[in-house]
Amino acid sequence: MDERTEVDVKHFCGCITGILLLLSATGCANDLFRSVYKLNSVQPPENLDAGIPLAIVVDYVTIPEVVDRPQLVLGINPSQTRVAEAARWSEPLKVQIANVVAVDMQRLFVDAQVSTIPQATDRPTVRIAINVQTFDSAPGSGAMLVVGWSILTPDSKRVLNGRSLVIRRVNVGGYDALVDAQSQALAAVCVDMAEAIVSAIKKKPQSVDRVFDAMDYQNTLRTRS
């Protein structure tokens, strides 16, 4: 290697080192090695018919504090979790859950108007509040989702309160499989809620935990704010 080539190589290496140090100082270096994940809607096995054209609003979503962070949180054992620094949600988890629930409900009620904020409409409106109590993701094992939900029926005189527990196993490692399992679990919760809505509108016997006055729904929203 001649003298000029040696100088050029040293200069090049020095520039690369300087860039990496700069990226590290600004926190950008870590971003180069992060993967971003997103919950997805799942096509239901069948559509449901409430008998009337509905408007459905996903009013509110709460999630456990331990998973309310940008990173995926992994279950190591029943008493221990690990934050996956290199695996990030594409947007806040509670926002993703609200959006995916809205899409899942739209797929279940194809003629409904579904949104995450109230819309001006003449349609009978169903309002949903979701309390995610457990959002567990165990690498190589699967996902467990426990959700308490409250549904304000169109007549605004009663609230349906239910609780869904869904477990989805995974047969492969990796975060993609876990996120897909959580998406499937969330879709199953939506089926539970959709069936409760149909039962309430068609005046069938309820399979939910309790039935409350509509004032309970408003109180629930206030206590979660």
UniProtKB/TrEMBL annotation:
What PROSITE patterns has UniProt attached to this entry?
A: PROKAR_LIPOPROTEIN (PS51257)
Q: Does the keyword Transcription apply?
A: no
Q: Which organism is it from?
A: Paraburkholderia phymatum (strain DSM 17167 / CIP 108236 / LMG 21445 / STM815)
Q: Where in the numbering of this chain does the ABC-type transport auxiliary lipoprotein component domain appear?
A: 37-194
Keywords from UniProt, A to Z, are: Plasmid
Going by the entry's taxonomy, the superkingdom of the source organism is recorded as Bacteria
The reply to whether Metal-binding figures as a keyword in the UniProt entry is no
For this entry, the protein name equals ABC-type transport auxiliary lipoprotein component domain-containing protein
Pfam families hit by this protein: ABC_trans_aux
